Amino acid sequence: MTKHISVLAATSAALLCATALSASAVTLRYANQGDLRSLDPYTLNETTANAHLGHVYEGLTKRGKDLAIEPGLAESWEVLEDGKRWRFNLREGVTFHNGNPFTADDVIFSADRVRSEGSNFQTRVPAGAVFEKVDDYTIDVVLPSPNPILHYQWDTWYIMDQEWAQEHGVEKPTPASAETPSYAALNANGTGPFEVTTHEPGVRTVFTANEDWWDEPEHNLDEIVFTPISSDATRVAALLSGEVDVIEPVPIQDIERVRSSDRATVLTGPELRTIFLGFDQERDELLYSNVEGENPFKDPRVREAFMLAIDADLIRDRVMRGLSTPSALMIAPELFAYSDEFERPGYDPERARALLAEAGYPDGFEVGMDCPNDRYVNDEAICQGVVSMLARVGITVNLNAQPKAQYFAKVLRSGGYDTSFYLLGWTPGTFDSHNVLNDLHGCRAEGSPRGETNLGGYCNEEVDALIEQILVESDEDARNDLIRQAYEITTGEFAYVPLHQQALAWGVANGVDLVQRADNQVLLYWARKGE
Amino acid sequence: MIAFIIRRILQAIGVLIAVGLIAFSMFRFAGDPVNQLVGIDTPAAEREALRQALGLDDPVPLQFARYIVEAAQFDFGISYQFRQPVSDLLASRAPATLELAVVATIFALVVGILMGVYSALRRDTALAKAFQAVSLIGISLPTFLIGILLIYVFSVSLGWLPSFGRGETVRLGGWTTGLLTGSGWAAIVMPAVTLGLFQMTLIMRLVRAEMLEVLRTDYIRFARARGLTNRAIHFGHALKNTLVPVITVAGLQFGSVIAFAIITETVFQWPGMGLLFVQAVQNVDIPIMAAYLMFVGAIFVFINLVVDILYTIVDPRLRSSLRAPT
């Protein structure tokens, strides 16, 4: 570390002297709470991993600083045959880090690999999609039914080199049950702006700028050194002492302290993730409640009462220290054009009590609540706030806050949806409402992926019918109208209680310029240091 | 002696199987590893396939038998999160932890004994009283708090020492060491002090109490009567006789130093086995958790064995009792 500091000192000295020599390398040191576990781009579909690997690998599309879809390895594309055939024109003259040229074969190979067993990205490419090679730089994707959002997630479907994969025996992603280590988990060969030069899992990863990148780099870095630092206090200390340049996240309680230091500042902004409360509306009797023989959450009035009893502004001011945006919808406003038309009902405990009485619970009832304590920003504190707010309208909540490992094992489908009332966060991977409606609002059915993460089992066939239409409607305005209709039904029935968009908080040393994207991907290929 | 060692080794195997059983039953409460292996919007069918591939659907006794048999061959499987063999991961992390533990123990022994002797011989001086106060702090403050305090004083405010990591390391065969570079030494100071502080105060208090005890005994009086110098009495006779319990404690504590390194390593992001273990617990990486617990169990058993053997070297009276049938 001392060496790095002296290199930095040398760099700044050189700059001060205004010599034309910029011989010293510019190294950006970045620390994240989580580590980079595997370099295989198909093993874990998670924001941090996707962001890291996005420096090394690229998709056919990219998403820009405002999340707009831009051409990536595909220069352009067009939709033919009423949406059943997509033609992608690939970029010519692109090479992988090992020097192999990028061609249509690599895309076909990646499409097979991403859909094979052991991949966590199988849904990136529809199972029925057929990839046809027109020529070396043209690909046709033939679909069984139209899909207007086919390419929405292709920015994180990273293209791999067929020859490289075959040479090292990694034609398939490493399944978690593998007996031998995978070459692709420790080595990477993409087309992106950086190459991985050192990777010690869980300790340190060094990315070096790719001199032969096809695009004009916006960064001025020679090297990125990534270190995971899991302890919040240490991560902040490392930023304040100048040992790292960028940290993610800054704990809410440390934001003021970092801002008041003369070394670093904090970039904040709303994240796309929506934090919400859900209810078991499926069972005839709740698992954790003193109400016998019936399920109070089947009554929309009870759900509305919960909505009115919870003061999202107070949670923002007291629990989130001002760093959250109360939400009316289950999707971030940035991701749905007509979000403005929806408004969150105001805090109204009187009305909540009246609604509970109307529904037959004038004295309230008891219910158990499941809450993670290490997954979202201040998750347990939010739940505690909810507990005390609900107590004011007569609802006694028995809080069960657990680490995410136990929490998810209990509440997800694999745990038999073992919950009555829970807190969860959701970012639509596609940045599109269809995902929110399909996964969180679709009726659950055996053998169908629809509604799998609809832990409470909300079900309305009208909404299901709309979801079907939204999936295939290609006209944007008509599609948005359908989405609005669906949200009107779900918010009218209080399917969920959306709480807020949590805030992003990145710590950035002075002298470093970054772009903060709302999906919380830390993309340092837009970073500049030392100017 | 050989019979004694063999008996101890047999006991050790029993202990390790017990550790394995306890560890294994704990994993059933650690959560579902599958949820940590895939993103939240992964379809259930995909999750189910993974669960089967990992053998998590097999009956529990079968899973335990498989685990013990593989562990006996030092095969701890593949880490769920890193997709690397656990034995490789542990081997690459072990040098960091062992170096930290050794430096912390040496620090604790040297400083602890010096402070203990001083405060026993010069009981009423201000410095001795200061040592007593320091030792209270060392015993009562939790490790992570000491670590964070040190970071704020020496990294953030003064900027003298790095707040995290191991500095630059040098590779010697299969061993990476930070002890050959300046940045490596700078990086180990605070973690070693944090980790060794509790042991240091323990040893200091132990040496002080034992010294005071020994200085009252008859043979010290005889030594004084013989006209030996204070130096010879204090260090040749008194200190030597206090060292048996100190060796026991330091030896047994070495195991806890390694085990407690978990907290220190987390605070300083020290890339050792403890940090690996903490991350494994958060991600329900059962193969790493299992291997680490077995490893720590094995270390404790081994240290006990070594301490038993050391006794016989330090204290000749024990040798005869070993030979006698028990």
Describe the overall structure.
- The complex is a heterodimer of chains A (531) and B (326).
- With 531 residues, chain A is an alpha+beta fold.
- Among the domains of chain A are: 57-178, Dipeptide-binding Protein, Domain 1 (Dipeptide-binding Protein, domain 1, Alpha-Beta Complex); 271-503, Dipeptide-binding Protein, domain 3 (Roll), CATH 3.10.105.
- Chain A has 15 helices and 19 strands.
- Chain A starts with a helix and ends with a strand.
- With 326 residues, chain B is mainly α.
- Chain B has a domain at 93-271: Orthogonal Bundle (MetI-like fold), CATH 1.10.3720.10.
- The longest helix of chain B has 39 residues, at 230-268.
- The two termini of chain B are 13 Å apart.
- The mean pLDDT of chain B is 81.
- The interface between A and B is large, with 64 and 64 residues.
SSE order of chain B: HHHHHHHEEHHHHHH
Gap from first CA to last CA of chain A: 22 Å
Write out the strand line-up for the largest beta sheet of chain B, numbering strands in chain order: 1-2
Class from secondary-structure proportions of chain B: mainly alpha
What spatial form of chain B do the alpha-carbon principal axes imply? Answer: globular
Pfam family, one (chain B): BPD_transp_1_N
Domain ABC transmembrane type-1 (chain B): 94-311
Main location (chain B): membrane
Keywords (chain B): Cell membrane, Membrane, Transmembrane, Transmembrane helix, Transport
